[in-house]
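# nightly structure sweep
# worker-07 picked up a monomer target from the shared queue
# config: single-sequence mode, recycle default, output format = structure tokens
# input follows
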Amino acid sequence: MFTRRLGHTDIEVSGVGFGCWPIGGPFFLDGYPDGWGDVDDNESIRAIERALANGVNFFDTADVYGTGHSEEILGRALKGRRHEAVIATKFGFTYDETSRNVYTKIDVSPNYINEACERSLRRLGTDYIDLYQIHPGVVPRERLDSMIYSLEQLRKKGWIRAYGWSTEDAEAAELFAKRSFAAAFQHPLNVVSDSPMVEVCERHGLASINNAPLAMGLLSGKFNRSSQLASDDVRGSGQSWVRWFKDGKPVPEYLDALDAIRDVLTSGGRTLVQGALAWIWGRSANTIPIPGIKTAAQAEEAAKAMAFGPLTPEQMAEIDGILRNLEVQAGRAG
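# output follows
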């Protein structure tokens, strides 16, 4: 089985993970829908079980996904099977479980970190978290040492095995890596949106955990220029930070890029999804893509990508040349 390690730890994970944001169901970020529409909890559990059956052992969630619902469903699915899974979750955004509202106000104080960890442990039905991650991508620099100290204390207590940060701030990530025993950084990465965070992870020997590996579904091939997502879907809710969809429609330039590289991605019998994951593995030996998954079929398709492994250096170079010719480098870097 294709596996990778979380930084300098002894934690080994499957080459592809299971992104648990979609199974959290509907919730709101400062009044805007931030989930992926309605969710069937039974299907979510079947998807987790299918992932395990196909060699996926890495599950990434957060306390704010469904304001706790994602963690609860993951805990239910793993009951009696906790030893088969590596669980990553996150903290730092404040939220209200009753109203399912998440706020942009963050809290990374020592007391909050401790309380947030306790709540996540309870919802997940476990006594330890394998990878505990700071969720807000931007935090005051003067809080870095305090956060590191708090995370180290949790590690010493046995509540967490390792920690990391979900951020695209490469400069701050460098500081965090130098001052801490972090295991990973999480950040967006896909074939149409590259990231300098990959090099940060390589320099420090850390895992590069990649969210949005399918550009929020755009790289699955399911969408065209006439596609329109509902307003209760994060991709159609008007969130300004969503890159690959605007007002619920796929960004045309990214669709054009996908069309141009489709044949390379699907070579050797891969689906588009599997080709997009293979590009990420080809990008670096540190990368671990975590596509968002809602169904058992999606879980199986992602898991089967591991049998193909990374794209070859020649295929990587071919894709790079095609995208350069399309003059989308600016979009890929953004």
